Amino acid sequence: MSYRVFWQQVLALALPVAFQSALVSALGMADVLMVGHLGSEAVAAVGLSAKLNFVLILVMAALGTGCSILVAQYFGAGRPEKVRQTLILSLIVGMAVMLPFTLLILFQAENLIRFGTGDPVVIELGGRYLTLLGLTLFTTQAIIVYESAMRSIGRTGWPLKYAMVAIGLNVLMNYWFINGGLGVPAMGVTGAAVATVLARVIQIGWIAWDVQRTETLRLDRDALASLRGSTLPARFGRLTWPLVLNFTLWSVGSLGYHLIAGQMGTVPLAVMSLLAPIEGLYHSLFFGLVNACGIMIGQRLGRDQFAEAAWLANRFLAFAPIGSFMLGLVILAISPLMLSLMHITDAETTRQTQWAMVVMCLGFWIKVFNMTAIQGILRAGGDSRFCLGMDMVALWMVGLPLTWIAAFIWELPFTLVYAMVLSEEVIKALGVGWRVRRGYWLANLAEPEDRVLAQAEPAA
């Protein structure tokens, strides 16, 4: 493959996804910005609730990733009926998985918030916010699965158009419901959650309407009935259970960093809440590149083009971290402007946030390397069990223990405690770099009877 063709395919697949992901991250930042004038307690409540919700988002993403892997390979192998079966199976499993979590949040929201803080104001505000977010779990799961399938067949622009409208409505309703007006009382933090619920309902309704008019992804009784006696559910289960376990344990561990900050005080918790959407915006710009990597490699693995898949992997592993580091320098240069837009009322919160941003911008390129290796390469070839083991060792045996020791044994300043999070990424990078070079991920996941000799051209 020439570099010209490479970049044409990368840009066609990556730009819409990166833009959409950046919009989602900007929405998270908007929630923080719009409640910033209500005080550090409001910021901490929104940030902690969003982090708890993020744990479930990653569980949803695991099922979406499993759907994406199989859809990309089946689409690459020219099997549209298998694409439809995978999509409907992913939706059914996703609804079943989200049911107990929805009930837990609806009835135990304040108790969940208490894990992260002892501040009664934060607990009350966060409990109301999180309860309303619990109403969005089913719709968010369906949105993630649909978007994963769309991207895997090369329709990366579709999720973008849905997200642009939904996020625009969300921001407008955020301002309206938080501050009140036109007959609506000011609801503060609760208003941000109400806006999210309404925006998600509109988004999933539009997606479902469009998909039912699309041949490749349209769901019908035949697709559901064909799952009976099929080997696809078992194959989907073998592929996704390590992903679900991996994403769940990783997200809980990631929440652990937030909880450590919460036990250090309201200011560190507020700093983590302020950094979360900035970090999300930073990495969202490379999520599109990682997504393009997974789709391009997955489609070639589905056609048994292993040499080209390896060539692609090497290029992505080189370009992604370099671009990330350069972006980090840009964000660091404009960080004073970003902080001024947040209208933080507490000087100590502002100071600690600025220093933490230095750590983030100079060190998080290694996270992008790991994202590319794990999500874009290893999982595209079904090497999910290694990713599970690597994540668990790096997070639970290195990152979290060192961060806890730095906070409560060594009693280091928060900036240095925050820097300890990168110890997880260093260990992980060593492991996944070795695994990519070994080539275990170069595999076609389709069963022999599902493959065809006439292969389809790449979607982009």
TrEMBL record:
Keywords: Cell membrane, Membrane, Transmembrane, Transmembrane helix, Transport. The chain crosses the membrane at residues 54-75, 87-109, 129-146, 158-178, 184-209, 239-260, 280-298, 310-334, 354-374, 386-410. It is found in: Cell inner membrane. GO terms for cellular component: plasma membrane. It comes from the Bacteria. It comes from Saccharospirillum salsuginis. It is a multi-pass membrane protein. This is MATE family efflux transporter. GO terms for molecular function: antiporter activity; xenobiotic transmembrane transporter activity. NCBIfam families: matE.
